[in-house]
Amino acid sequence: MQIFLDTANVDEISRAAAMGLVDGVTTNPSLMAKETGDPREILASIAETVSGDVSAEVLSTDTAGMVAEGRELATIAPNIIIKCPLTPDGLRAVRELKEEGIRVNVTLCFSVPQALFAAKAGAYIVSPFVGRLDDISAPGMQLIADIREVYDNYGFATQILVASIRNPLHVVEAARLGADIATMPAKVLDLLIRHPLTDIGLERFLKDWEAARVT
């Protein structure tokens, strides 16, 4: 399973990339708004920092606007892919952009039928939002299992990207269910790396070594 960071902060991405842990990045308008600077320059910097896919989201809500923005964003770097919302206009934009060789991440997916239509439209990636489903007492990870089953049934090539990840358990379950990608904030990545028993064990080893040197 590929690991993506869900952020537009270049420093966070650089730190994770230096450990060899990040395969790609997802951004959205909310994340971009937290950063200072020209959005195009920020996206270019992110695309230089990681070799994998970098999702850049359109702001238009109509098909023509999405296609125009998608074309423009795709010129920033070869690893930029376009995020379009899972709406009727968004699905039409997916088909048009795909015909031009532009890859699309269809975002804000909350149901199996939506994921099915995204794949049929030619989506490169579909992004189900598991955390937001959990927030309304719906089983977010069950949606991933159901989409995986449907895609495997029909041989769809669309990748499943688990989005709106809130905790390490979401990542573990995504891997168990065979999701292609999990995207997460830097704080969740840090939690996945760390374990209290690792810290305790390391501290004990160092104390034992120091005691052995004294004697």
Report on this model:
Helix content is 54%, strand content 17%. By secondary structure, it is of the alpha/beta class. It has an eight-stranded parallel beta barrel with strand order 1-2-3-4-5-6-7-8, surrounded by seven helices. Helix 1 packs parallel to helix 3 (39-49), helix 4 (63-74) packs across helix 5 (88-99) and helix 6 (112-121) packs across helix 8 (140-154). The chain is globular, with a radius of gyration of 19 Å. The model has no long low-confidence stretch (mean pLDDT 95).
Brief sketch in words of this structure:
The protein has helices at 10-18, 29-33, 39-49, 63-74, 88-99, 112-121, 130-135, 140-154, 168-177, 186-193, 196-214; strands at 2-6, 24-26, 54-57, 80-85, 104-109, 125-128, 159-162, 181-184.
List the helices and strands and how they pair.
Elements: E1 2-6, H1 10-18, E2 24-26, H2 29-33, H3 39-49, E3 54-57, H4 63-74, E4 80-85, H5 88-99, E5 104-109, H6 112-121, E6 125-128, H7 130-135, H8 140-154, E7 159-162, H9 168-177, E8 181-184, H10 186-193, H11 196-214
Parallel strand pairs: 1-2, 1-8, 2-3, 3-4, 4-5, 5-6, 6-7, 7-8
Helix pairs in contact: 1-3, 4-5, 6-8, 8-9
Please name the defining characteristics of this protein:
alpha/beta; 215 residues; 54% helix; globular; 11 helices
Q: Strand order, biggest sheet?
A: 1-2-3-4-5-6-7-8
The percent range for helix content is 40-55%
- Radius of gyration (Å): 19 Å
Structural class: alpha/beta
Number of strands: 8
Task: Please tally the helical runs, counting DSSP H or I stretches of 4 or more residues.
Answer: 11
Q: What is the element string, with H for helices and E for strands?
A: EHEHHEHEHEHEHHEHEHH
Task: Describe the global form.
Answer: globular
Oligomeric organization of the protein chains: single chain
